[in-house]
Each structure stands twice: as structure tokens, then as C-alpha cells.
């Protein structure tokens, strides 16, 4: 099982993702968010074939196809966090935090 918590940034929305690989090699997803767009995605995207998702060409996985329908902001980090949870739950990556530091500097 993999758990990921995402504090998405200036929007203030927080999402929590739990991914569990079951005996059929499918990944069951539980996604909770106070973002209405992520919550709409979560209602439809509840199970997936982990290997197919992780090894699909970038942007062509079922996750990203469904994300295009619901996520309204191109820079939203939540779909990538969901993919990382799938990857870890399938033992295709070790759990490791991802960090972004975003600053605006005057030139």
C-alpha cells in the first residue's frame, strides 16, 4: 500500500491518495480531496491496471486521460501524485518524497 498527501499550492487544496495492489494485480485507489475537480476524478478513477498505467507513454495513461476531463489547472500536481502512489503500490519504485520549491525573483 502507498499513501501520498499533496498540498497543491496557492489554491490551498489538500488531497490524500491511498493505492493498494490487490491479488488481481489491479490497484485500488481511495482519493480524498477538498478540491471539487480532484474529487470528481476520484469518483470515477477507483481502480486501474498498475503496470499499464506506469509504463504508458507520458500523457497516454488512463489516469491522465481521465484527468483531462476533470482537472482544470494544467499545473495541478495531484495526477502525478496519484501516478507515484500507483508506482509505489506496485513495487515499481521506492517511496521517496518529491519536492518543489517555487519562488519568484525580481530581475
Topology:
Blueprint: E1 2-7, E2 14-21, E3 26-33, H1 36-44, E4 47-49, H2 50-55, H3 62-70, H4 78-89
Antiparallel strand pairs: 1-2, 2-3, 3-4
Helix pairs in contact: 1-3
* Total beta-strand segments: 4
Shape descriptor: globular
Number of helices: 4
Examine the coordinates and then state which fold CATH places here, giving the name of the CATH topology. Sufe protein. Chain: A
Question: What attributes characterize this protein structure?
Answer:
107 residues, alpha+beta, Sufe protein. Chain: A, four-stranded antiparallel beta sheet, 4 helices
Describe what this molecule looks like in 3D.
It is a single chain. The protein is of the alpha+beta class. The protein has one domain: Sufe protein. Chain: A (Alpha-Beta Complex). Helix content is about 35%, strand content about 25%. The chain is built from four helices and four strands. It has a four-stranded antiparallel β-sheet. β2 (about 15-20) and β3 (about 25-35) form a beta hairpin. α1 (about 35-45) crosses α3 (about 60-70). The longest helix is centred in the C-terminal third of the chain and has 12 residues, at about 80-90. The chain is globular. The mean pLDDT is about 95.
Amino acid at each position: 500500500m502507498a499513501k501520498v498527501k499533496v498540498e497543491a499550492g496557492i489554491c490551498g487544496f489538500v488531497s490524500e491518495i491511498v493505492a493498494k495492489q490487490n491479488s488481481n494485480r489491479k490497484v485500488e485507489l481511495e482519493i480524498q480531496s477538498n478540491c471539487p475537480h480532484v474529487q470528481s476524478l476520484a469518483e470515477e478513477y477507483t481502480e486501474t491496471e498498475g503496470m499499464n498505467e506506469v509504463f504508458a507513454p507520458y500523457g497516454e495513461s488512463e489516469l491522465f486521460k481521465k484527468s483531462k476531463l476533470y482537472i482544470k489547472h494544467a499545473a495541478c500536481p495531484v495526477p502525478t501524485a496519484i501516478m507515484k502512489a500507483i508506482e509505489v503500490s506496485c513495487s515499481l519504485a521506492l517511496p521517496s518524497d518529491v519536492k518543489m520549491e517555487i519562488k519568484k525573483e525580481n530581475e
